[in-house]
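Progress against Task 2.4 (sequence-to-structure conversion) is shown through the following example record, which the project officer requested during the mid-term review.
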Amino acid sequence: MNKKEILSWLQQYGLAPNKMYGQHFLFHEKYIEAIVTAISPCSADVVLEIGPGLGVLTQRLSEHAKKVIAVEIDAGFVEVLQSRFANNSRVTIVHNDFLKTNPCHECTVLTGNLPYNISSQIIFAAAHNYTATHCFFLLQKEMAQRLIAKPKSAMYSAFTVGIGLYFTVQTLFDIPPQAFYPAPKVYSTFVKLTRKNTVMLHTDEKAVFEQLVATAFWARRKMLKTALKRSPYTTYSTAFIAQAFGQLGFDEKVRGEELTLDEFVALAKYCTHYSNK
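C-alpha coordinates generated for the chain above:
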Protein backbone atom coordinates (compact mmCIF):
# COMPACT_ATOMS: atom_id res chain seq x y z
CA MET A 1 0.00 0.00 0.00
CA ASN A 2 1.49 3.33 -1.09
CA LYS A 3 0.51 6.87 -0.11
CA LYS A 4 -1.97 7.13 -2.98
CA GLU A 5 -3.72 3.95 -1.85
CA ILE A 6 -3.88 5.18 1.74
CA LEU A 7 -5.55 8.39 0.59
CA SER A 8 -7.98 6.35 -1.50
CA TRP A 9 -8.97 4.14 1.45
CA LEU A 10 -9.42 7.17 3.69
CA GLN A 11 -11.58 8.90 1.10
CA GLN A 12 -13.66 5.77 0.46
CA TYR A 13 -14.56 5.43 4.14
CA GLY A 14 -14.73 9.16 4.90
CA LEU A 15 -11.84 8.97 7.34
CA ALA A 16 -8.93 11.17 8.30
CA PRO A 17 -5.95 10.63 10.61
CA ASN A 18 -7.00 11.35 14.19
CA LYS A 19 -4.55 13.56 16.11
CA MET A 20 -6.00 12.43 19.42
CA TYR A 21 -4.86 8.87 18.66
CA GLY A 22 -1.55 9.97 17.18
CA GLN A 23 -2.30 8.33 13.83
CA HIS A 24 0.53 8.38 11.28
CA PHE A 25 0.35 5.64 8.64
CA LEU A 26 3.56 4.05 7.43
CA PHE A 27 3.40 3.52 3.68
CA HIS A 28 7.03 3.27 2.53
CA GLU A 29 7.56 -0.28 1.28
CA LYS A 30 11.23 -0.40 2.29
CA TYR A 31 10.40 0.14 5.95
CA ILE A 32 7.30 -2.05 5.99
CA GLU A 33 9.42 -4.91 4.64
CA ALA A 34 12.15 -4.16 7.21
CA ILE A 35 9.61 -4.36 10.03
CA VAL A 36 8.18 -7.68 8.85
CA THR A 37 11.70 -9.07 8.45
CA ALA A 38 12.65 -7.94 11.96
CA ILE A 39 9.55 -9.52 13.51
CA SER A 40 9.86 -12.66 11.35
CA PRO A 41 6.69 -14.33 12.68
CA CYS A 42 6.54 -18.09 12.31
CA SER A 43 3.57 -20.42 11.88
CA ALA A 44 3.30 -20.92 15.65
CA ASP A 45 3.21 -17.22 16.55
CA VAL A 46 0.13 -15.38 17.77
CA VAL A 47 0.79 -11.70 17.12
CA LEU A 48 -1.10 -8.94 18.90
CA GLU A 49 -0.97 -5.74 16.88
CA ILE A 50 -1.79 -2.49 18.65
CA GLY A 51 -3.39 0.18 16.48
CA PRO A 52 -3.36 -1.53 13.06
CA GLY A 53 -4.99 1.44 11.32
CA LEU A 54 -5.60 0.43 7.70
CA GLY A 55 -4.05 -3.00 8.19
CA VAL A 56 -0.91 -2.66 6.07
CA LEU A 57 1.26 -4.54 8.58
CA THR A 58 -1.65 -6.78 9.61
CA GLN A 59 -1.82 -8.24 6.11
CA ARG A 60 1.90 -8.97 5.95
CA LEU A 61 2.01 -10.54 9.40
CA SER A 62 -1.01 -12.74 8.70
CA GLU A 63 0.83 -14.31 5.77
CA HIS A 64 3.31 -15.88 8.19
CA ALA A 65 1.80 -16.03 11.71
CA LYS A 66 -0.69 -18.53 13.08
CA LYS A 67 -2.98 -15.66 14.07
CA VAL A 68 -2.97 -11.85 14.21
CA ILE A 69 -5.14 -10.16 16.81
CA ALA A 70 -5.52 -6.54 15.73
CA VAL A 71 -6.69 -4.19 18.50
CA GLU A 72 -8.02 -0.90 17.12
CA ILE A 73 -9.64 1.89 19.15
CA ASP A 74 -10.99 3.96 16.23
CA ALA A 75 -14.42 2.78 15.04
CA GLY A 76 -13.86 4.11 11.54
CA PHE A 77 -10.72 2.06 11.06
CA VAL A 78 -12.38 -0.99 12.59
CA GLU A 79 -14.87 -0.81 9.73
CA VAL A 80 -12.03 -0.74 7.20
CA LEU A 81 -10.28 -3.66 8.88
CA GLN A 82 -13.42 -5.75 9.07
CA SER A 83 -13.96 -5.18 5.36
CA ARG A 84 -10.35 -5.95 4.40
CA PHE A 85 -10.04 -9.12 6.48
CA ALA A 86 -13.57 -10.49 6.34
CA ASN A 87 -12.32 -13.61 4.57
CA ASN A 88 -9.00 -13.96 6.38
CA SER A 89 -9.41 -16.54 9.14
CA ARG A 90 -5.99 -15.71 10.55
CA VAL A 91 -6.97 -12.16 11.49
CA THR A 92 -9.19 -11.23 14.44
CA ILE A 93 -10.27 -7.60 14.78
CA VAL A 94 -10.88 -6.28 18.29
CA HIS A 95 -12.56 -2.90 18.68
CA ASN A 96 -11.14 -1.64 21.96
CA ASP A 97 -8.50 0.44 23.69
CA PHE A 98 -5.45 -1.78 24.20
CA LEU A 99 -4.98 -0.39 27.70
CA LYS A 100 -8.51 -1.53 28.60
CA THR A 101 -8.40 -4.88 26.81
CA ASN A 102 -8.11 -8.10 28.82
CA PRO A 103 -4.57 -9.42 28.32
CA CYS A 104 -4.18 -12.08 25.64
CA HIS A 105 -2.06 -14.79 27.22
CA GLU A 106 -1.69 -16.80 24.01
CA CYS A 107 0.20 -13.97 22.32
CA THR A 108 3.86 -14.66 21.62
CA VAL A 109 4.61 -11.30 19.98
CA LEU A 110 3.32 -7.77 20.53
CA THR A 111 3.81 -5.04 17.97
CA GLY A 112 2.48 -1.63 17.05
CA ASN A 113 3.16 1.93 15.96
CA LEU A 114 2.63 3.60 19.32
CA PRO A 115 1.30 7.14 19.85
CA TYR A 116 3.83 9.23 21.75
CA ASN A 117 1.51 10.36 24.55
CA ILE A 118 0.74 6.81 25.73
CA SER A 119 3.82 4.89 24.59
CA SER A 120 5.16 4.40 28.09
CA GLN A 121 1.76 3.22 29.39
CA ILE A 122 1.49 0.65 26.61
CA ILE A 123 5.02 -0.65 27.14
CA PHE A 124 4.50 -0.93 30.89
CA ALA A 125 1.25 -2.81 30.22
CA ALA A 126 3.15 -5.17 27.93
CA ALA A 127 5.72 -5.71 30.69
CA HIS A 128 3.26 -6.25 33.55
CA ASN A 129 0.25 -7.92 31.92
CA TYR A 130 1.67 -10.07 29.13
CA THR A 131 4.14 -12.93 28.79
CA ALA A 132 5.01 -12.46 25.11
CA THR A 133 8.68 -13.19 24.52
CA HIS A 134 9.21 -10.29 22.13
CA CYS A 135 7.70 -6.86 21.60
CA PHE A 136 8.44 -4.80 18.49
CA PHE A 137 7.37 -1.19 18.73
CA LEU A 138 7.65 1.83 16.46
CA LEU A 139 8.29 4.82 18.72
CA GLN A 140 9.22 8.44 18.45
CA LYS A 141 13.01 8.51 18.44
CA GLU A 142 13.17 10.37 21.75
CA MET A 143 11.15 7.64 23.46
CA ALA A 144 13.44 4.95 22.05
CA GLN A 145 16.46 6.86 23.34
CA ARG A 146 14.92 6.91 26.80
CA LEU A 147 14.59 3.13 26.73
CA ILE A 148 18.33 2.60 26.13
CA ALA A 149 19.65 5.55 28.15
CA LYS A 150 22.55 5.07 30.56
CA PRO A 151 22.83 6.23 34.18
CA LYS A 152 23.85 9.88 34.60
CA SER A 153 22.53 10.80 31.14
CA ALA A 154 19.72 13.31 30.59
CA MET A 155 17.48 10.67 28.98
CA TYR A 156 17.87 8.16 31.84
CA SER A 157 14.57 7.98 33.69
CA ALA A 158 12.17 5.94 35.79
CA PHE A 159 10.86 4.60 32.48
CA THR A 160 14.32 3.33 31.53
CA VAL A 161 14.81 1.54 34.84
CA GLY A 162 11.26 0.21 35.11
CA ILE A 163 11.25 -1.38 31.66
CA GLY A 164 14.80 -2.62 32.13
CA LEU A 165 13.58 -4.88 34.93
CA TYR A 166 11.55 -6.88 32.39
CA PHE A 167 13.19 -6.45 28.99
CA THR A 168 16.48 -6.05 27.19
CA VAL A 169 16.07 -3.37 24.54
CA GLN A 170 17.58 -3.03 21.07
CA THR A 171 17.04 -0.14 18.68
CA LEU A 172 16.88 -1.64 15.19
CA PHE A 173 16.51 1.24 12.72
CA ASP A 174 15.18 4.76 12.29
CA ILE A 175 12.37 5.79 9.94
CA PRO A 176 12.16 9.33 8.53
CA PRO A 177 8.97 11.44 8.74
CA GLN A 178 8.37 11.32 4.98
CA ALA A 179 7.73 7.55 5.17
CA PHE A 180 4.41 8.28 6.93
CA TYR A 181 1.11 9.93 6.08
CA PRO A 182 0.65 12.43 7.57
CA ALA A 183 4.34 13.05 8.17
CA PRO A 184 5.18 13.45 11.87
CA LYS A 185 7.56 16.21 12.96
CA VAL A 186 10.22 13.81 14.23
CA TYR A 187 12.03 10.62 13.30
CA SER A 188 10.72 7.28 14.53
CA THR A 189 12.73 4.29 15.75
CA PHE A 190 11.80 0.63 15.53
CA VAL A 191 12.78 -1.22 18.71
CA LYS A 192 12.91 -4.83 19.85
CA LEU A 193 12.17 -5.71 23.48
CA THR A 194 13.16 -9.21 24.56
CA ARG A 195 11.66 -10.45 27.79
CA LYS A 196 14.18 -11.53 30.39
CA ASN A 197 14.00 -15.16 31.45
CA THR A 198 13.57 -14.18 35.08
CA VAL A 199 12.58 -10.98 36.85
CA MET A 200 15.07 -10.26 39.60
CA LEU A 201 12.41 -9.32 42.17
CA HIS A 202 9.47 -11.00 43.89
CA THR A 203 6.06 -9.33 44.06
CA ASP A 204 6.62 -7.54 47.37
CA GLU A 205 10.08 -6.44 46.25
CA LYS A 206 8.67 -5.05 42.98
CA ALA A 207 6.38 -2.69 44.90
CA VAL A 208 9.34 -1.34 46.87
CA PHE A 209 11.44 -1.13 43.68
CA GLU A 210 8.78 1.02 42.01
CA GLN A 211 8.62 3.33 45.03
CA LEU A 212 12.39 3.70 45.10
CA VAL A 213 12.66 4.39 41.37
CA ALA A 214 9.83 6.94 41.55
CA THR A 215 11.60 8.61 44.46
CA ALA A 216 14.98 8.67 42.73
CA PHE A 217 13.66 10.45 39.65
CA TRP A 218 11.21 12.64 41.55
CA ALA A 219 14.32 14.35 42.91
CA ARG A 220 16.94 13.23 40.40
CA ARG A 221 19.30 16.14 41.11
CA LYS A 222 19.23 15.63 44.86
CA MET A 223 21.30 13.13 46.79
CA LEU A 224 19.35 9.90 47.02
CA LYS A 225 19.51 9.81 50.82
CA THR A 226 17.80 13.24 50.91
CA ALA A 227 15.17 12.14 48.40
CA LEU A 228 14.41 9.02 50.43
CA LYS A 229 13.79 11.09 53.57
CA ARG A 230 11.46 13.53 51.79
CA SER A 231 9.81 11.29 49.21
CA PRO A 232 6.04 11.48 48.62
CA TYR A 233 6.21 7.77 47.72
CA THR A 234 7.92 6.33 50.79
CA THR A 235 9.94 7.46 53.79
CA TYR A 236 12.95 5.87 55.44
CA SER A 237 14.72 6.98 58.60
CA THR A 238 18.14 8.58 58.43
CA ALA A 239 19.60 5.68 60.39
CA PHE A 240 18.14 3.04 58.06
CA ILE A 241 19.32 4.87 54.93
CA ALA A 242 22.85 5.09 56.34
CA GLN A 243 22.69 1.38 57.21
CA ALA A 244 21.46 0.42 53.72
CA PHE A 245 24.04 2.56 51.94
CA GLY A 246 26.80 1.08 54.06
CA GLN A 247 25.72 -2.50 53.45
CA LEU A 248 25.36 -1.96 49.71
CA GLY A 249 28.53 0.08 49.29
CA PHE A 250 26.75 3.19 47.98
CA ASP A 251 28.47 6.57 48.09
CA GLU A 252 26.54 8.66 50.59
CA LYS A 253 26.36 11.49 48.04
CA VAL A 254 25.02 9.34 45.20
CA ARG A 255 22.05 10.67 43.25
CA GLY A 256 19.22 8.46 42.11
CA GLU A 257 19.96 9.17 38.46
CA GLU A 258 23.40 7.60 38.96
CA LEU A 259 22.19 4.17 40.09
CA THR A 260 22.18 1.26 37.66
CA LEU A 261 19.27 -1.18 37.37
CA ASP A 262 21.21 -3.75 39.41
CA GLU A 263 21.79 -1.19 42.16
CA PHE A 264 18.09 -0.30 42.28
CA VAL A 265 17.29 -4.02 42.52
CA ALA A 266 19.78 -4.49 45.36
CA LEU A 267 18.36 -1.48 47.22
CA ALA A 268 14.78 -2.74 46.76
CA LYS A 269 15.69 -6.15 48.15
CA TYR A 270 17.44 -4.61 51.14
CA CYS A 271 14.61 -2.17 51.90
CA THR A 272 11.99 -4.91 51.60
CA HIS A 273 13.65 -7.28 54.02
CA TYR A 274 15.43 -5.03 56.52
CA SER A 275 13.35 -1.87 56.82
CA ASN A 276 11.28 -1.14 59.93
CA LYS A 277 9.93 2.19 58.68
